[in-house]
């Protein structure tokens, strides 16, 4: 089994019995997970492999947050505590956590009814409101804007992102040129290269037309999950059973997480959004999170700009040689074009 974890040492730390089976869970892009069955029961073993999020102190903070959320009734799967009283086990320089196994499956927005989409939006609103209750206010890393509102000091990790305003189109044009050169050099050329070249040229033309629409500072900030999407939410019997993978827990504009999540849940294979489902989701989110329509409209603009300047899938493919995200590229790249054309309709769906 590739990347086999040190099961003996780990299970001793948790007094979790002896391993019977251990199977990799293949859906994670950054960390490694295992479906583990022992003489004591079934577990999910997480190897915190991503160097950006593998700090034991940060992992312990995530664990405390999920336990507090569980105490409020939020569907999460807090980790188990080891015999040393800790939830993080460090073995051989690697950080691990053991969670109860949650039966369930992932659901994309296309598999959800309109009513379930509303419950999804309400759930994310509850998460944001609950995090405000259980996380320390002094943990914020935000600055005051001219209107006195708190603003995030850090933007989404987009190439050329300004801490206050988001991506600079000049940096994006340079990135497009670099990626186009890499596409031309790739041999043998294939269908992915052809689509990449088409989308890069198309995106450059879009940015040339819309370069003056770079957004201002982000909206009100708070604690957010940081990576709320279908693979991080398990459903059982049609209802959310557990929100998982809290590695990106942090301080960011709350409404932007709501928009990013909707874009991932409700994008269709041809790169359009199901705006009926978006509307139901957004109304429920605003109600439970206490967000205003203007906050959502501003977040739509910032996430639209972020998507217009974002090429992470192509960077993984051409710069890292990592093709795991390639299947997402057709819909993701088409979405930026459709969203630009249907900008007003998208804003109305989130704010109406």
Could you tell me the number of beta strands?
A: 13
Task: Give me the Rg, rounded.
Answer: 21 Å
- Give the percentage of residues in beta strands: 15-25%
Number of helices: 11
Notable features of this structure?
single chain, alpha+beta, two-stranded antiparallel sheet, 11 helices, globular
Describe the SSE topology:
Elements (H helix, E strand, L loop, with lengths): L6 H8 L4 E7 L6 E7 L2 E8 L7 H16 L17 E3 L2 E7 L13 H21 L7 E3 L5 E3 L8 E2 L3 E2 L1 H17 L5 H20 L10 E4 L8 E4 L2 E5 L6 E4 H13 L8 H15 L3 H16 L3 H9 L8 H13 L1 H9 L1
Antiparallel strand pairs: 1-2, 2-3, 3-5, 4-5, 6-7, 8-9, 10-13, 11-12
Helix pairs in contact: 3-7, 4-5, 5-10, 6-7, 6-8, 7-11, 8-11
Task: Write a brief structural summary.
The protein is of the alpha+beta class. The chain has helices at 7-14, 56-71, 114-134, 169-185, 191-210, 254-266, 275-289, 293-308, 312-320, 329-341, 343-351, and strands at residues 19-25, 32-38, 41-48, 89-91, 94-100, 142-144, 150-152, 161-162, 166-167, 221-224, 233-236, 239-243, 250-253.
Describe the structure.
- With 352 residues, the chain is α+β, with helices and mostly antiparallel strands.
- The protein contains eleven helices and 13 strands.
- The protein has helices at residues 7-14, 56-71, 114-134, 169-185, 191-210, 254-266, 275-289, 293-308, 312-320, 329-341, 343-351, and strands at residues 19-25, 32-38, 41-48, 89-91, 94-100, 142-144, 150-152, 161-162, 166-167, 221-224, 233-236, 239-243, 250-253.
- It has a five-stranded antiparallel beta sheet, with helices on one face. A two-stranded antiparallel ribbon has the order 6-7.
- Strand 11 and strand 12 (239-243) form a beta hairpin.
- Helix 3 (114-134) packs parallel to helix 7 (275-289) and helix 4 packs antiparallel against helix 5.
């Amino acid at each position: 089994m590739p990347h086999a974890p040190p099961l003996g040492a780990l299970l001793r730390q948790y007094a979790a019995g002896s391993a019977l089976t251990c199977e990799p869970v293949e859906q994670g892009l950054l960390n490694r997970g295992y479906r583990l069955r022992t003489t004591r029961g079934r577990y999910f073993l997480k190897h915190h492999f991503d160097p950006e999020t593998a700090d034991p102190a940060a992992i312990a903070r995530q664990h405390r947050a999920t336990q507090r959320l569980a105490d409020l009734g939020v569907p999460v799967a807090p980790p188990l505590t080891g015999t040393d009283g800790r939830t993080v086990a460090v073995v051989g320089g690697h950080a691990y956590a053991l969670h109860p196994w949650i039966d369930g499956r992932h659901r994309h927005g296309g598999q959800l009814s309109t009513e379930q989409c509303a419950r999804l939006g309400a759930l994310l609103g509850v998460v944001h409101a609950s995090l405000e209750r259980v996380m320390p206010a002094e943990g914020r890393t935000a600055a005051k804007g001219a209107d006195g509102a708190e603003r995030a000091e850090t933007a989404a990790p987009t190439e050329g992102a300004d801490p206050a305003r988001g991506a600079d189109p000049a940096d994006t044009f340079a990135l497009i040129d670099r990626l186009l050169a890499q596409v031309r050099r790739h041999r043998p050329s294939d269908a992915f290269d052809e689509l990449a070249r088409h989308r890069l040229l198309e995106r450059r033309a879009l940015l040339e037309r819309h370069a003056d629409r770079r957004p201002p500072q982000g909206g009100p900030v708070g604690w957010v999950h940081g990576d709320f999407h279908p693979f991080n939410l398990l459903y059982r019997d049609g209802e959310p059973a557990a929100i998982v993978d809290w590695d990106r827990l942090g301080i960011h504009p709350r409404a932007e997480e709501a928009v990013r999540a909707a874009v991932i849940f409700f994008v269709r294979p041809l790169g359009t959004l199901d705006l009926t489902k978006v509307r139901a989701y957004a109304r429920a989110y605003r109600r439970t999170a206490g967000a205003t329509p203007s906050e959502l409209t501003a977040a739509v603009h910032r996430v639209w700009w972020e998507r217009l300047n974002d090429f992470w899938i192509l960077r993984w493919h051409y710069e890292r040689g990592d093709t795991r995200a390639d299947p997402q590229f057709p819909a993701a790249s088409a979405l930026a074009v459709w969203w630009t054309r249907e900008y007003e309709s998208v804003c109305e769906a989130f704010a109406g």
